[in-house]
UniProtKB/TrEMBL annotation:
Lineage: Bacteria, Candidatus Nomuraibacteriota
This protein's record includes keyword Oxidoreductase: yes
GO molecular function: glycerol-3-phosphate dehydrogenase [NAD(P)+] activity; NAD binding
Listed name of the protein: Glycerol-3-phosphate dehydrogenase [NAD(P)+]
Binding of NAD(+), residues: 98, 206
UniProt keyword annotation of Lipid biosynthesis present: yes
């Protein structure tokens, strides 16, 4: 099978290693003649990345690995259903650091979508990469996007020398807020206890490391100056007003983080605002 990968960064390369093991042919940033398209760009570039190849996107299945929202604040599924109404769209998320995938660590992900996901599972799954199936497209998107936000907050607490008790408090309250948000949008409550949210929260990810640097007192401008792109969690925090407006919900947890990161608010006061 020919599988296109749009966005050949660290995760794109990592998932490619697993697909090559399954004897698939990988097309990098090219979709012409492919059977399936896997998107691993930053979430705010998913729409543009696919539109760049729209003339050659016919009946391929589209699988999104990007964790976040469209840059206007919409869910990625909402945007792509309008742009690609004749393509089946799925979401593949999980607690899978790129290094672990490349090293062949036993890993697991969730593939969410409608009909056809069973066949995709057969093509992607291997001895050390297990795939669970879900129908909860909204839930896995919300969980995967918002866990990036929570893990930044946990990292801030760690960087500011708060102990594990405080970190666990932030983790738990953040997870509760994600679940509340998701359920209000029609998601299934149990989705947030699975791999795409609580499972992914446990990783020491780049978002967690970013939070640690902020907690140590580093300015966000200085941190971003050394990065080629904005991390997903930070992009969500920065765009939280648009996201809140598009989803029709309040995001108090994200409001607190925005004030800490971009307005210099007190970390301690921010933590104590969490209820």
């Amino acid at each position: 099978m020919k599988i296109s990968i749009l966005g050949y960064g660290t995760f794109g390369q990592a998932i490619a290693t697993r697909l090559i093991i399954n004897e698939h042919e990988i097309l990098i940033n090219e979709v012409k003649g492919s059977d399936m398209i896997l998107v691993a760009t930053p979430s705010y570039r998913v729409k543009e990345a696919l539109l760049e190849h729209k003339d050659f996107i016919i009946n391929q299945k589209i699988i999104i690995c990007s964790k976040g929202f469209n840059k206007d604040g919409d869910l990625i599924s909402t945007v792509l259903e309008k742009e690609f109404p004749h393509n089946s769209i799925y979401f593949l998320y999980g607690p899978t650091l790129a290094e672990g995938l490349i090293n062949g660590d036993l890993s697991a992900m969730v593939l969410a979508g409608g009909a056809g996901k069973e066949e995709i599972k057969k093509q992607i799954e291997s001895q050390n990469l297990k795939i669970e199936l879900s129908n909860d497209v909204v839930g896995v998107q919300i969980g995967a996007a918002m866990k990036n936000v929570v893990t930044i907050f946990v990292g801030i607490a760690e960087g500011a020398s708060y102990g594990q008790n405080t970190q666990a408090y932030i983790f738990t309250k953040g997870l509760q807020e994600i679940q509340k948000l998701g359920v209000s949008l029609g998601a299934e409550p149990n989705t947030f206890m699975g791999l795409t949210c609580s499972g992914d929260l446990s990783l020491r990810s780049r978002n967690r490391l970013l939070g640690i640097e902020i907690g140590k007192g580093r300015k966000i401008e200085d941190i971003l100056a050394k990065k080629k792109y904005m991390l997903e969690g930070l992009a969500t925090i920065k765009n939280h007003k648009n996201i809140s407006s598009k989803l029709g919900v309040e995001l108090p947890f994200v409001d607190i983080l925005f004030s800490i990161i971009f307005e210099g608010a007190s970390i301690e006061k921010g933590i104590r605002k969490i209820i």
